[in-house]
From TrEMBL:
Chain ranges passing through the membrane: none
Polar residues composition bias: residue spans: 195-208
Pfam family, one: Big_2
Signal peptide residue numbers: none
Domain Fibronectin type-III: 1-48
Natural source organism: Virgibacillus pantothenticus
Protein name, as recorded: Fibronectin type-III domain-containing protein
SMART domains: BID_2 (SM00635)
Disordered: annotated segments: 195-224
């Protein structure tokens, strides 16, 4: 027998976690008395529809061979947080299913995170891949010059497509030989000095040995 006078009522429950099962039962409270609870019902909450995806960091600079982890945040918070990752050019940088970027070669790529719930909701980030310096070679490796003369040294950066090819030169003894910013050595007096070239990127070095010898004595006046 169905009780008379019972009216259907709607209740809104807030603060529930998405994709979670909840069990509910109802009872009526009159004064200080509560009726028996109704038969329970189990429901499972749904995810909210995704609206946007934000990747952090948005701009990333890596050297060839380097890696970096990116994070994707789907909005709102109650939306499903899973995304698929992709790179605009795997020859420059790849990205795995966990958001880890691996730099392959010099260039720039766009990384995209796409909501698994809605394919047209996605976010992007930029990855700039630079080629770091792996070594430097100075030429010539040794030279013998007279007091007061000069010798031009040349630094070759490896690899050839390195982004930063700036170098500095230094001498082990500036009383014997000095060197300018272009690698031009000027001898001062007899002796030996080591010229070192150092790359700005990576502090790679190489050296050249400079031997300064006296000028030849002029022939005596009237000599044979």
């Amino acid at each position: 027998m169905v009780a008379e006078g019972i009216k259907e009522k709607k209740h809104t429950v807030t603060g529930l976690t998405p994709n979670t099962e909840y069990t509910f039962a109802v009872s009526e409270v009159i004064g200080d008395k509560e009726s028996e609870k109704s038969e329970s019902i189990t429901v499972k909450t749904k995810y909210s529809a995704p609206v946007s995806v934000d990747i952090t960091p948005k701009t990333n600079n890596l050297n060839v061979g380097g890696t970096k982890n990116l994070t994707a945040k789907v909005s709102p918070d109650t939306a499903k947080q899973t995304v698929t990752w992709s790179s605009s050019d795997d020859k420059i940088a790849t990205i795995d299913t966990n958001g880890k970027v691996a730099a392959v070669s010099k260039g720039q790529v766009t990384i995209t995170a796409t909501s698994t719930d809605k394919g047209d909701v996605k976010g992007t980030a930029t990855v700039n891949v630079k080629q770091s310096v792996t070594g430097v070679t100075i030429s010539p490796k040794s030279a013998e010059i007279e007091v007061g003369s000069t010798q031009q040294l040349t630094a070759t950066i490896a690899p050839d497509n390195a982004d930063n090819k700036k170098v500095t030169y230094s001498t082990s003894d500036d009383t014997i030989a000095v060197v300018n910013s272009s690698g031009l050595v000027t001898s001062k007096k007899e002796g030996q000095a080591t010229i070192t070239v150092t790359t700005e990127d990576g502090n790679k070095t190489d050296t050249a040995a400079i031997t300064v010898v006296p000028k030849p004595e002029p022939d005596p006046e009237g000599g044979a």
